[in-house]
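User: New here, please read:
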Amino acid sequence: MDCMTMTPTKPLSELPLAALQFAQQKPFVLQSTEREADMTTDSVSSRSPAPVEVTSVGRIRMQTSDLNVHYGDTQALHDISLEIPENQVTALIGPSGCGKSTYLRCLNRMNDVIDSCRVEGSVKLDDADIYGPEVDVVELRARIGMVFQKPNPFPKSIYDNVAYGPRIHGLADSREELDSIVMESLEQARLFDEVKDRLQAPGTSLSGGQQQRLCIARAIAVKPEIILMDEPCSALDPIATSGIEALIDDLKDAYTIVMVTHSMQQAARVSQRTAYFHMGQLVETGSTDKVFSDPRDPRTRDYISGRIG
């Protein structure tokens, strides 16, 4: 178990009543006996940002328009249009099987590895279509990092886990430069002080929460612009969860974060924007405070109140 201070990521006084009620409860994860159905189975290669739309929610880094996803004959997502603002946490919530993880994986083309998957519509990073034929997918995934539900450190040392990405992408010209990237990434992930004397120990020797922070350090070591998180706390205990949430709050100042979560309390605590998915459709999106305190759609209200889920 991690020995980390449980720091609130947002003062409770700033949350509306509905969000406050969720945030004050003990963390929990809604469970289902069924896994999500989606769990079965213009170039973006340059890192120079293109001019992008600026709206009332801030600069838009990613947006999807009329996004449809099929697995064989089964349609998993229906006409999803959603904007992802810069330097904010966007939480994707909804019942199991609603398409949250499928949508998340569209944002860095992780669905490409599924032969039966077909993606239609537009997914743009700044003004560039990430599904364009000229896109280097390896470079794209360096710009849009991914942290998975279960910590998955490589069978390497703590140091080599973090150094792996910078090495394969040629981001360091010397050992000293590589050392600097590793140390900076571990510090950003709030892990350096806990592992500085055992950097050559296996990454798998760490606790669950430490392993997840190691995976976050590995993701940010390649200097991504966007970090995708697929239920990053679902396999962790409450203390480790609190540490990851505090880390997410820190990281949003430097990165744009999109996070799938089954925990409505967690969405209320750490996100600025929330999107509610239901049966492959995007039902409602808006500021987290607004979605939790005054949802427009009765389906959103039913989910938040616990009538469905």
